[in-house]
């Protein structure tokens, strides 16, 4: 189980500086393509879950890795608590074929860059999506412990009140934005 919060409208350079000054290690610098799937009746999304194929290209080595994942929201008070199952698969087409054979259909395809820093047991992830989908950069802070998550949020210069446990789609809706209408 992971605990996760988002921090919106960040200064990427400031986050990098704080991470570097505090000994965090850059563990990922990648481009991602995410294929989000659900059943035609949307039973996964209705229960705040989804199935995903993610193609990750390492920006340093050019190496590609493909992941098959399911996620389901367990609770969302201060933190988003997710149940997640993930495995590496041989290739994207095999994963997409498995999902199709199970009756899942492609809901959306999302591209983004992700830069991830490891600080203690916490990941600080800078996400920059295609501007037509999410027109602002944001952080995802993921930790196995509430105490460490709060410590990292404070280290970054924020309070827990500055964070959100909403999904990016819920944040876009709250701001009057959508993938179809990025300007609102």
Automatic annotation (TrEMBL):
UniProt cross-references to InterPro entries, sorted A to Z: Adenylyl_cyclase_CyaB, CYTH-like_dom_sf, CYTH_domain
Domain CYTH: 1-174
Name of the protein described by the UniProt record: CYTH domain-containing protein
